[in-house]
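Input structure tokens:
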């Protein structure tokens, strides 16, 4: 991954293929370890494995058609260094016109280089193409850097709150929404 002036060269955004599951799992694991350090219990994070995230990625890719989900990857110099997934909202009571950004994770080595924004644009473009008019996402309330990224890219907190079980703790999540 070569970079200059905050840009990474050789970035290709594409739909994920089954063979990407291992890389998606590794990216998610690395991202969780860095992004959630200090936000989630240390023993919970320590108990997460690359193998577990790879299995989760394999299941996500296997089920994407049935779940009407799309998964995109950021291929940087031939290496999958990020992914995003989108599909119908999972929230009860949301109209059919509301989609959801389920996940967006990047290898920490390429954070703050504009790749996350580009990946998000491609994923939200798919929702728009699929007829969705709005999108939601859930983020840990204490995750200030991610919340700032979402707010900078047009998302607004809509008042929705939930909880994420991280081992024995339940962490506050907040919902964001934006027009497509």
């Amino acid at each position: 991954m070569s970079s200059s002036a905050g840009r990474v060269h050789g970035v290709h955004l594409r739909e994920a293929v089954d063979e990407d599951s291992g890389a998606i799992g590794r990216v998610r694991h690395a991202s969780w370890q860095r992004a959630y350090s200090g936000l989630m219990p240390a023993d919970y994070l320590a108990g997460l494995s690359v193998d577990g995230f790879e299995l989760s990625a394999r299941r996500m890719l296997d089920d994407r058609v049935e779940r009407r989900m799309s998964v995109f990857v950021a291929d940087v110099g031939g290496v999958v260094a990020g992914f995003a997934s989108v599909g119908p909202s999972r929230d009860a009571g949301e109209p059919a016109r509301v989609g959801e950004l389920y996940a967006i994770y990047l290898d920490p080595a390429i954070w703050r280089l504009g790749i996350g924004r580009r990946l998000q644009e491609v994923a939200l473009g798919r929702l728009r193409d699929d007829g969705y008019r709005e999108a939601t996402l859930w983020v840990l309330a204490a995750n200030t850097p991610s919340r700032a990224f979402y707010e900078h890219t047009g998302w607004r907190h809509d008042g929705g709150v939930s909880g994420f079980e991280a081992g024995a703790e339940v962490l506050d999540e907040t919902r964001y929404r934006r027009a497509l």
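The radius of gyration is 16 Å. Helices lie at 21-35, 42-46, 50-63, 115-129, 144-152.
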